[in-house]
Amino acid sequence: MLTRSLLLGAALGALTAAPAFAACTTTVGAVMSLTGSLGVLGQKIAQGSQLAVADLNAAGGANGCELKLALLDDQTSPTVGVDAAKKLVDIQHVPAIVGALSSGVSAAILTAVTAPGHVVQISPASTSPTFTQLAIDGKTGGYWFRTTPSDALQGVAMAKVARDAGYKKVAVLYLNNAYGQGLNKEFSDAFTGQGGAITQSVVYNPSQPSYRSEVGKALSLAPDALFLIGYPGDGTTIAREWIAAGGPQKFLLPDGLQSQDFVNDVGAQYMKDVHGTAPGSQTTPSLATFQQEYQAKFGALPTQAYIPNAYDATVLIGLAMEQSKSNKADAIRDSIRKVTDPSGEKVYAGAAELKKAAKLLAAGKTIQYVGATGPLQFDKNGDIFAPMVVWGVNDQGKVANKGMVTVDEIAKLRAKAS
What is the pTM of this model? Predict the structure, then answer.
């Protein structure tokens, strides 16, 4: 098993002089795709958690203890992800895990490790509606949260984007996992509800050498465009075979393919008519601070989805420890909503603001952490609501944002459909 473990402490990117810690450390786990089909995205997303740990430590740690992040690679594999999570829980005794990214990996960890083991799990990127149902069915124990909205929202937003682009008939090729299945259903329901037609809905399995059969089936009824649900790697193969088979070079792409490497590998010359969606961030002081800090630390602006979501997920664990004065999982679980209380004093991203948060909590005050992704109001299922960025490929062949579908727009479309 190829596993990378990174222990990140106060020295990583600290923006102020390192504080003096008590003789204690608290380790938070993270399971993310550093390799495999999501590896090209996961390596950047992990940096969001790394930056959060640096900020929390620069602000004094959690309850005076230095925070460390134990980051393990799940290789975008549920089996490997479960093994990594077990290692974190059984050997390192972490009270909380940030991750995973793939919905399939997160679901495997949740049902096999974190829920039965009473460990908090916050995913920055797993969007399948499956998790909402698991919570409704009482199978998460309240230990599950995510800082990204469900595909119940992304499917509605993508349907609107497709209709706005003038597409009446769309073929769907979707990955055979929780992410692909969930987004396919949500999009198909929303698109047909908005007057569109699904010509074919074709499932595919990962890691095949070719997808010509699936592509041929998807092309059979002459769609206006292809909605390709998947990740870089297999997604690249499918897109190339679609183009080679004469499919229209009009693509609808979700968050899992919001990748410059994917565009480059397919060929930007074929990606001139792309309409993509991905979870967006509301404009807050936290977003600007996060972007500045990230650029200072890593040398570029965070243009890819889910990096700020990973930052927020990690910050919330640290603040929950501070609020509860405990590093126990149950206390963290019960305090996450308390540090995002809309009635509390607003605090934002960055070491200075997190230090302010710690002082307010020490004084018994209520706070509302407004994250880099916006206000994080978790419902009883651990879900949040957030806008959806609309992205595409510009004239220079670069992935770029070009609009937004707001929370209110999505809510109105969902209400109309119901």
Answer: 0.90
